[in-house]
Specification:
heterodimer, A: mainly beta, seven-stranded mixed sheet, four-stranded antiparallel sheet, 11 strands, about 50% strand, B: mainly beta, six-stranded mixed sheet
């Protein structure tokens, strides 16, 4: 399968713990995006990378959130000191910026903070 | 915050009927895209229409864009039970490549 993959698919954690999610984009794609989606809502943009550079961050991305894409391939999203309000689906997408504006989404990581 | 609004929020039709969903947005855009999401899963790209285009077709999908009214519609013809899903419009603004999604339309196609 050459689509976008995300791990883990589900994560249950206790409030105050740190969690890290991983996204592996489609291999030739140079842009990688993170979105968050809560139940009954559309996805909300968090941040995106072009190659290894983080080019934009949403105001939704508090200082407890950090994302990296160290070699321009996979990316990680870390949430420190999780809160119940962080419970959501975290979606990763990738695109090949030079030829297409379409974003290809992974299956998401569902985070539940208890 | 979400830029777009989608109408209706929920739509229930019989197999074979057409389904029309509408999307409105607030700012200037480079393009508008429609995505489908099956329950609890990731989004699947359906179709993209650029700001200088007015209508686009792909299989059973027809998308229109009216930039003067800042609105778009998605028509699914001859619907099937497998079309049951949530449908989202997403706009790419003129300043960058982030997508801003609407709140979605939940489509149910009854066999």
């Amino acid at each position: 399968d050459t689509g976008v993959s995300q791990n883990p698919r589900h994560k249950i954690t206790k409030r105050g713990q740190n969690v890290t999610f991983r996204c592996d984009p489609i291999s030739e794609h140079n842009r990688l995006y993170w979105y968050r989606q809560t139940l009954g809502q559309g996805p909300e943009f968090l941040t995106y990378f072009q190659n290894e550079a983080q080019l934009e961050k949403s105001r939704l991305l508090s200082d407890r959130f950090s994302a990296e894409r160290p070699k321009g391939s996979f990316s990680t999203l870390e949430i420190q000191r999780t809160e119940q309000g962080d419970s959501a689906m975290y979606l990763c997408a990738s695109s090949l910026f030079t030829t297409s504006y379409e974003q290809y989404f992974g299956p998401g990581t569902r985070l539940t903070v208890t | 915050s979400q830029q777009g609004e989608e109408d209706p929020q929920a739509l229930s039709i019989q197999e074979g009927e057409n389904a029309t969903m509408n999307c409105s947005y607030k700012t200037s855009i480079n393009n508008l895209q429609w995505y489908r999401q099956n329950s609890g899963r990731g989004l699947v790209h359906l179709i993209l229409i650029r700001s200088n285009e007015r209508e686009k077709h792909s299989g059973r999908l027809r998308v229109t864009l009216d930039t003067s009214k800042k609105s778009s519609s998605l028509l699914i013809t001859a619907s099937r039970a497998a079309d049951t899903a949530s449908y989202f419009c997403a706009t790419e603004g003129t300043s960058g490549s982030r997508l801003t999604f609407g709140e979605g339309t939940q489509l149910t196609v009854n066999p």
